[in-house]
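Milestone M4 deliverable, item 7.
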Amino acid sequence: MYNNMKHTISTADRCTAYLLPIFLLVIDYIAIICAEQSAFVFRNCLLPNGGVLHISWLNFWLVFPLMYLLFINIEQLYSRRAQFWQVIQKIFHASIYAVIAIIIVLYIGQITASTSRLFIALLLVFTFIYLTIFRYITKKILEHFQLMQIPVLIIGAGKTAELLVQGISSDAGMGYKIIGLLEDNHVKDGILQKFPVLGKFADVENVIKETRVQHVFIAAPGLEQVKLTQIIYKVQPLVKNMGIIPNLVGVPMGGIEVESLFNEKLMLLRLRNNLARPLNRYLKAIFDFIVTLVGTLAISPILVFIALWIYKDSPGPVIFKHIRIGKNGKEFPCYKFRSMCIDAKEKLEKLLDTDPEVRAEWEKDFKLKNDPRITKSGAFLRKTSLDELPQIFNVLKGEMSLVGPRPIIKAEMERYGEYINDYLMVKPGITGMWQVSGRNDIDYTERVLLDSWYVRNWSIWIDLVMLFKTIAVVLFRKGAY
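Output delivered:
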């Protein structure tokens, strides 16, 4: 029997939707003031002969912060929940727009001549950094103490609901507190078992009225259309916000556009293949070249140190070239620091001929978890993925990209099946969806789907997210061998 006393939402939780935006606005204001102060101090330190910069109290405490808060609000950072990487993207956009607005205000007020351009540039950098850090820390603290988390009811308890709960629980940007589930079937073991089942689909109206929940997610894409429509019509008048996960799991949705056909009562989804557009490919190529050139100069001492270590550790060349398949099916030599003995090919053939278990493992993923061919230095380089650093020269040569599908050998092409055209459309990457999603801990079919998803959903921002996630993966060495 449903226990309304146990699951009724408290007054504090019901007020979260109103209190949280105010609280975040205060946090953002503090972050902006700190950024202004940092930009002010750094400017005066960097230009000691340029005189001490003076900023009016009105601009410092009111005008500049209001510009930022205005564009943060326009980016819906006070009204909508999003994954934190999307929050960072919106903060970046808001920071750019705010600085442009500030420059316009200074020009109109005819005080541009007395305002340091270096201060404005530093303000852009510090506000983006401080807003991101302050937001993240605030979200983590609130999440830890279960404060100002918006109560949400999830309808469905299958695989899709499990993925939804994982996304909500693992991301600091979401800030939802799951009060329970509605499900007609038995809830399987896993993350969903942590939450109470408050009833079946038919109980949705009673559960919403008794708990007074105002946020509902429908995560039952396998539900019959008639039943799904019935639930939507029951729920919508009772809540403020309702989210629906359609039966499109795995479909590339980056850059999606939604259009309503009112007379026909239909919803049209327009999907774009982002990397099929020449302009996007040019932008990606420019991004790759600039970032790689700067990065190569920065890590050159590390490259030299690793090369000397390999040279002393085992006989043979420092760089290993392996033929991989690139854009449009063109083969290219993929560079890596050598991590195996020089007779690795002969040892592998002998091993595959004599050990059926090893052969089965190799045929499954083209990798061996305990590979006897790997050298002492190679074991460390593979575990940390440092063996792939020379691929930056493939990027500079135009054969690879910083982020993209994992470079494959010719024998793997048939395993891509209908998705091979997505792979061949772009340059393979040093890192990508596969590398930051578990690497060798996920099966080959999922790798293919991740590569395809990336190609169809590409954006510069996704590339930046993948690069930052790669740093975390390398540090924790998850799935590498």
